[in-house]
Amino acid sequence: MHVRKRDQNTQWVAGLLAQLAHIKRTDIGFCGLKDRFAVTTQWYSLHLPGRDVDLTQLRHPDFEILAATRHHKKLRRGMHRGNRFNITLREVDFTSATLDDRLQLIAQLGVPNYFAEQRFGHQGNNLHKAQALIDADKLKGNKQGTGIYLSAARSWLFNLLVKRRIELGHLTQDFAGDRSAALWGRGRSNAGDLVAQIEADVLDGWQSWCYALEHAGLKQARRDITLRPQRLEAHWLADDRVKLQFSLEAGCYATAVLREISQLIRPEYRPL
Fold first, then answer.
1. What is the pLDDT of residue 233?
2. What is the pLDDT of residue 86?
3. pTM across the whole model
4. Mean of the per-residue pLDDT values for the chain?
5. In terms of domains, do 146 and 63 share one?
6. Three-state SS for 124?
7. Which of these is catalytic: 35, 174, 204, 224?
């Protein structure tokens, strides 16, 4: 089911689809989580072997079904290749020339591949919860219902490593051929000696977090420190309003791109 939703999160819509189709929540699949406060489209899979479903049965005011087709596989997290964004910035106070210069710089160098604020919850609450779970030795992963906090903790450590690499100028030059930073977990780092030493120094004060990630069963991995948006375009809609369009690989954040273009101010949210 290709679904369009407004101001609804992915998990909520999955639950509604399961309820309306009279199947278990675990029979609903999707590839990734979309922002809640946006108009988003994504595919869901409903496990309905040998059974047809009347699309009128799945109507709900929280979403709209755009298309439906048969497939032999369940959608799973991370299967999608990427996301396409159309974002309008309002009340902008920079000129067209300034924006063009910034977009050219982004095309040349990319942007820091930070995990953005969505990963850390409202006012960083996911990180506070992660710390509490680590203190109680209860950060164990998805089976214990703490996966979201495990991911937040791992992402925070990665961001600290990216920050340090920026301070050292590694985003604007090729440093020892290594353009990645650790996603912490169990196992030996395959980073070069210089990068490995930088990471050890940065994470020295976060050993309880590193220990928790290792003993939660996560394997150490690497993630690029630089993000390069594809097909980045800007279209001025008015003197103080511009629409940005770009594509990102799966797991990358549009807000990581936006923060390099403008200082963002989040208005008080009011549901439409």
1. 95
2. 94
3. 0.82
4. 90
5. no
6. helix
7. 35
Please give the residue range of the domain that contains residue 161.
Answer: 112-227
Tell me if 45 sits within 8 A of 28, measured CB to CB.
Answer: yes
Rounded to the nearest 10 degrees, the angle between the axes of helix 207-215 and helix 147-167 is: 130
The mean per-residue pLDDT over the stretch 18-45 comes to 91
Residues 155 and 116: beta-carbon distance below 8 Å = no
User: For position 196, what pLDDT does the model report?
Assistant: 92
Catalytic-residue membership of 201: no
230-238 sheet: strands from edge to edge:
82-90, 241-249, 230-238
Domain count, the chain: 3
22 has pLDDT over 90: yes
Number of H helices, E strands in the chain: 7, 11
Count CB atoms within 10 A of the CB of residue 24: 9
Tell me: do 131 and 216 sit in the same domain.
Answer: yes
Using CA atoms, how far residue 223 sits from 3, 32, 155, 229, 268, in Å, is: 30, 18, 10, 16, 33
CA Rg value for the chain: 21
